[in-house]
Predict the 3D structure of the following.
Amino acid sequence: MKGDKLLDAHNVFDRYEKDLKQVESNLTDIFKSDAVLIPVIGQHIIGGGGKRLRPLFLILAAAITGYIGDKGYIFASVIEAIHTASLLHDDVVDGAAVRRGKTTSHSIWGNHVVILVGDYLYANSLRIAVEQHDPHIVEAIAQAATKMTEGEILQLQKIADPSVTEQDYINIVERKTGSLFSASCRIGALLGGSSVEKVEALTSFGLKCGIVFQMCDDILDFQADESLLGKRLGKDLIEGKITLPLIYLLKYAAEAERNEVTDIIKSIDEGKTEDAVAGDMKRIISLLKSYDIIEKTYKRAEEIVCEAKAGLNLFDDSDEKEALMLIADYAMKRAT
């Protein structure tokens, strides 16, 4: 795997395409039910695509620790199903109309049905995990699901709150995003029968990659092409979510502009017209550029990626180790 890092990351996806197709097949099975709306909604979601990063992390973590077998596919599909359930619930909470460029499930079938389908996914995923008779892995999955929920609630508690600190932000994203990446790598290491040291190293690697993934999502929210992003630009700000670019803007801006940004944040729930919201977004984006905030946020993400990759020094060089490092780079470089 030579050449540009991002292209190499795509080559990693190509190399493990068969593995990810097996995960997708298992994911389809998790949606099976006599309640026909469950598989129908499943097909809608699975058809929406996605890189299946979390399953790939699990498969690579299992491979780097020497695991050979099919349980990796089973647990990878469980992780992806839990991730999918969280997206279903998140879209209802956020009132999102679009996900990955497609109409969200709750916009088609309604909130009640979609919430229940999310509940079904959580329950069925845990049932499948329990059937594998590995309590340490079940514990990792349950802890990740718990932390994800905590992260979402912590974020809701901080809606439209300009006093949110960088540490507050990290506490939120470690839980709501990092926990499932972390669990993916931990499960892979547990499948491989790794030492405690190696299990913890991969767990930490996954957590840091998850944090970076979320940071880069937050960067994209302010600068991506909407047609490529698959959702409205500035959606997080419109929903009152205080992400790292905003935190840095409030930290580095001059007092008058900091007060202006604070006023915009505090006025989010005031029922502004579309033109007023667009004007606020334009102003925020202008200030982000003036203070090089995107670059500062990206630099912080880059630091965390370097920390994550350094944690893999415990492992001998291998294709799987290189693949993990390339996917860590991919999580960051998609924001450039």
Q: What stands out?
A: The first strand starts at residue 98 and ends at 99.
